[in-house]
Design a protein that fits this description.
The protein has 17 helices and 5 strands. The chain has helices at residues 5-8, 17-26, 33-37, 44-55, 65-106, 122-139, 143-153, 165-177, 190-205, 234-244, 253-263, 270-286, 289-302, 311-336, 345-362, 370-386, 389-426, and strands at 28-31, 209-212, 221-225, 228-232, 248-251.
Amino acid sequence: MSGTLRSVFYGHYSLTDEERKRLWKEAILVPDTNSLLYLFKLMPTARDELLAAFKSFNDRLWLPHQVGREFHERWRSAAKSNRAEYENLKVEFQKNKGKLTASLNNFKRYQPWEDNALIAKLPELFDSILKEVDGAIAKLPDPETTFEAVAALFDGKVASRPEDLALRTKEAERRRKDRIPPGYMDEGPGDYLIWAEMMEKAKSDKVPILLVTDDQKEDWWWKDSPDDFIGPRSELRYEFFDRTGQSFYAYRPAHFLALVRQSDSALVSDATVQEMQRVQNRRLVSASSLRIRSKIRELSEEILLKPGASEETILPYAAEIATTLNLLDLTIAARAEGKITGDDPKLLQKHADDLKSDALSGVLYSDDGALGAYNLAKFNDLINLLRDREYWNELEHVLSRLASTRELRERMDEARQLRDSQDRGTS
């Protein structure tokens, strides 16, 4: 039986207005852990409106057991980190005010501007800003009150602990190794456990699922760039329907609030949608460069290298293999859809294998024992890490940092040798 491109490859398309309205009317709403933790980062009005948006789904609001467990483990640290960000901002303003005041005092004897000039009022302006920051800190929602509100919201709507949790945890590890979404970007099984619970709920209750999540990794989202979220990955939508017979879709919190506002403008304000977007953007920035670079460095440092080799040597090998494997996947997918490509999958696979062979023979420590197997596994982990565009984009910074560190170490060694020779000359 034939169909349209949209009906056959529905996972690659955004929802139509009709599909979205039907999902909005029928689906069970599932907030993930990050969405709930945002309640501790929003100002009281926005917090209350997000709670109201969740509550508007009434009996169709549901919490997976894994989300509940993660929420209880993390809500206190989320509240503390949010307050700490404001306190750090205050400290930065105080530091800059001190520097500015000292600089202005250096010019006092010259009197280059009038007493009522705007620049002379800058210290006073800093004082006003600091008062505003203090006011914002005072308005932060009380963590205990927010926690109690969440507990009340999900009263009678939380899943029990899955009986087959051990089997699901084992399956999560298999999927992570095979890079099957969701969850392969995480060390732990949490994302897959949530995914399995949602599929079980959809199948048993015969209802679609709508997930609200700000997990920003590529194992959940189809993205054009690190900050351009198009929709949930097609593989997720296909697997969900194949396993449950029901639809699955996901929205980030700000998008979810905007859709709630479309349905009921009295429930959610534009200001709350904008505040949520700002909070999301702040998390996107903080979760990117330093974390990514640190992860690349951490993994590359675990790999044992042959004498004379360095991280600067192994990273380009891993990066080129990752690029080749990504191109291989795209080529296979294109040919499966009947498209003609200029790349030969067999040649691409051979190129990746040859690169890995070169790395093993020339750079990586290898043997037939457990240590060699461990080393190869770590190298494969590094390759898989660099297949994600976010990590690839930070690779140049890591290599530059490594080069700078090596040059600094060499200069320090030269200085130490010079000092030692001088010490010997004076002794």
